[in-house]
Amino acid sequence: MTREIFIAPSILAADFARLGEEIAAIDAAGADWIHCDVMDGHFVPNISFGAELIKAIRPLTKKTFDIHLMIAPVDPYLEAFAEAGADVITIHSEAGPHLDRSLQAIRTLGKKAGVSLCPATPESVIEYVLDRIDLVLVMTVNPGFGGQSFLESQLEKIRRIRTMIGDRPIRLEVDGGVTRDNAAAVAAAGADTLVAGSAVFRGGNSADYAGNIAAIRIAAEGGRVPKIQDNSAQAVRVGETARLR
Ligand code: DX5
Ligand code: ZN
After folding, report:
1. Most buried pick, 22, 106, 113, 236, via CB within 10 A?
2. pLDDT per residue rounded down to tens, the chain (245 residues)
């Protein structure tokens, strides 16, 4: 199933002193989702913001709020994030002992449930929860900070998860170091939802954001188009094989 590409700017890279204006700017610039990175200084070595901030910015846009929880434990806080206005709540497979239970809790709260995998975590952890999730988030950096470099090693994981998902209505999101330069490879591997912090807020001026988002989207959409050159090369190979027979 080919799904429309979604671009989800991470507000971690926004100017926090002007957060309301920054959210209005990415909304107007064509963001599909608003990605909110919640960090606790325990599961990851950085502290960002919590449910109260999300509640405060929720009325500023109608876009889907994509909440990425990098916190442990996670269960005691799910209700607060649901009430703050989350649409999708994504938790880390590494953050607690009972992934299946935590995912059920998110859906019971009436929210879409996502599971995120750190770079060293194999895709097999989602095998038995595939029917409980609406989204898989593949981390392409070690979580905790924006502005890190994309880990190429994760492209193979993205490809494998795309195959595991099959026809299920599950979004495959990629987060960390995504830029206009690697968006095509990410989409070619099977991702349909691209988080980008630094690459969207690059320039620090709201006038830049629409161009930044469009550049990532166009590159990602281009990555999905079957390559004519590859097809013709394959046709040549098939022809050669036929002649050899
Ligand atoms: C990292 C966060 C990411 C981060 C992305 O822990 O989950 O969402 O903000 O930022 P960039 O796009 O700058 O890597
Ligand atoms: Zn994130």
Report:
1. 106
2. 678 999 999 999 999 999 999 999 999 999 999 999 999 999 999 999 999 999 999 999 999 999 999 999 999 999 999 999 999 999 999 999 999 999 999 999 999 999 999 999 999 999 999 999 999 999 999 999 999 999 999 999 999 999 999 999 999 999 999 999 999 999 999 999 999 999 999 999 999 999 999 999 999 999 996 644 444 444 433 333 333 33
- Cα–ligand 1 centroid distance for 177 (angstroms): 7
- Give the pairing type, strands 88-92 and 64-70: parallel
Q: Compute CA distances 48 → 52, 135, 167, whole Å.
A: 12, 23, 35
- For ligand 1, whether the C-beta of 141 sits within 6 Å is yes
- 98 touches 125 (CB < 8 A): no
Structural domains of the chain, ranges and CATH numbers in brackets:
6-244 (3.20.20.70)
147 lines ligand 1 (CB under 6 A): yes
3-state secondary structure of 122: coil
